[in-house]
Design brief:
This protein is an all-alpha fold and about 220 residues long. The protein has seven helices and no strands. Helix 1 runs antiparallel to helix 3, helix 1 packs antiparallel against helix 7 and helix 3 packs parallel to helix 7.
Length: about 220
């Protein structure tokens, strides 16, 4: 029998470890899919599909995975609060850069293939997410880093910063899932290894989003 007053409380540590493993698994699946089944990645190529392959790589690995790590940085990075904040800021900036480049690749591919722009739910969600992500980063930089708002103001802004950040992150997840479905349809995939890889990638991205979201509400492990 447990002692009176004792309680079991899970910390964010096992959840963030699970998220790290999911990041490795998702990155591996994406690379196997794009390099083995889709012919590889290229910024310049006579094969436009190789150019387009940069888009899912940048958006899934460069944008979503790194953004998730940025969100978890307050639970995973040792050191002072300011150090954690700096890592959080830098990782989000890297994710934003990857996301912007990924969107550019999509527009570039559409231009080469004479495909209409912004005609799907995936494209609407994607562009909205990148724009909101950029605005959130700029707002956070000036409010919480430099020059930084007064402490009482920061305290009032912080819950809204958390809320907006998680909404934008989940928008990114939804964009990735709709993008995988759209690509699955465009490639006319049949039951087989490639279809399984695409489907499992989508499932693991969802699990990653759940793990990241859970880490936010759990206390930091010490």
């Amino acid at each position: 029998m447990a002692a009176k007053g004792s309680s079991f409380q899970i910390t964010a540590t096992p959840v963030t470890l699970f998220a790290h493993l999911l990041l490795i698994a998702v990155t591996t699946l994406v690379l196997v899919w794009l390099l083995h089944f889709q012919g590889g990645l290229a910024f310049k190529s006579g094969d436009n599909d190789k150019i387009f392959n940069l888009h899912p790589f940048l958006m899934i690995v460069g944008f979503i995975m790194i953004a998730g790590e940025a969100i978890m940085s307050y639970k995973t990075v040792p050191g002072t609060k300011r150090t954690q904040k700096l890592v959080h800021l830098i990782l989000h900036f890297i994710a934003l850069g990857a996301g912007i480049f990924g969107v550019y690749i999509a527009f570039r591919y559409h231009d080469k293939e004479s495909i209409p722009d912004m005609d799907t739910l995936h494209s609407w969600l994607g562009l909205s997410t990148i724009c909101l992500f950029g605005l959130q980063w700029v707002f956070a930089f000036f409010s919480f880093w430099f020059p930084g708002a007064e402490m009482p103001t920061r305290g009032r802004l912080m819950p809204w910063h958390w809320f907006a950040g998680m909404v934008i992150f989940l928008m990114a997840i939804l964009t990735a899932e709709t993008g995988l479905v759209q690509r699955f349809k465009d490639l006319e995939l049949k039951p087989g290894q490639e279809a399984l890889i695409v489907n499992f990638t989508g499932l693991l991205i969802l699990l990653f989003a759940i793990a990241v979201s859970l880490s936010v509400i759990l206390p930091r492990g010490y």
